[in-house]
Amino acid sequence: MQALLCDEIMGALEDVTNKLVGTFGLEGDALKQAREELSAGPIMQYLEWVADRLAEQGGKYFVGGTLSMADLKVFSWVKGLNSGRLDHISNLLVKEVAPTLQAHCDRVAQLPKIASYYASQQV
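RESULT FIELD:
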């Protein structure tokens, strides 16, 4: 059952990521329109859906009350959305639409091994 719950989250994030990847290579107004539509539609829907899954599992982790691959996948996805490197996607979207996912990301980032890894990657 835990593997199924992980797969559900990870598969959903792959789906929305594939929608985003479909905008790579677009430029100018076409990129802006596509990204704004994604932000207002699928990305917002997936943020809300993933936040609901987190709430269903108690609000701390996605599976069994402990860190799983699903948590790491969500962490990575949220960091990407927050990065500011995706033109025409607000780096505040997660905070505004799904603050519980932002809190989850912040919590995962503070885990000693995760924090140590990211600290070692800083140039």
